[in-house]
Amino acid sequence: YTMTPDEDFVLDFHPAHPQVLIGSPCSGHGFKFGVAIGQVLAELATQGQTRHDISRFRVGRFEV
Fold first, then answer.
1. Total-model pTM
2. CB burial readout 18-36, b (16+ within 10 A) else e
3. Is residue 46 part of a domain?
4. Residue 21 falls inside a structural domain
5. Residue 1 and residue 50: Cα distance in Å, rounded?
6. The predicted structure's pLDDT at residue 53
7. Which residue among 3, 26, 42, 53 is least packed, with the fewest CB closer than 10 Å?
């Protein structure tokens, strides 16, 4: 399975292409969170934001 460096999800819009939504529930444990991840991604896709705090899942966390 695939893993991010911090072994967490990526749920965010692509920084260079804001019309692209990234949903990567990998890291071996994502399947358990499928319903919640789906809800967050649906809110982001339809409303541009979510009511959940997804700050720890933003793609920007990998920037130096």
1. 0.84
2. eeeebbbbbbeebeeeeee
3. yes
4. yes
5. 27
6. 97
7. 53
**Within a domain: residue 56?**
yes
Q: Which amino acid is at 62?
A: F
For tokens 């919640």, name the residue: 36
Provide the domain count of the chain: 1
Residue count (the chain): 64
Q: Considering only residues 1 and 59, tell me which one the structure prediction assigns the higher pLDDT.
A: 59
- What does the pLDDT look like over 20-62, one tens digit per residue? 999 987 767 778 888 999 999 999 999 999 999 999 999 999 8
| Strands, E assignment, the chain | 10-13, 21-24
Say if residues 33 and 45 touch (Cβ distance below 8 Å).
no
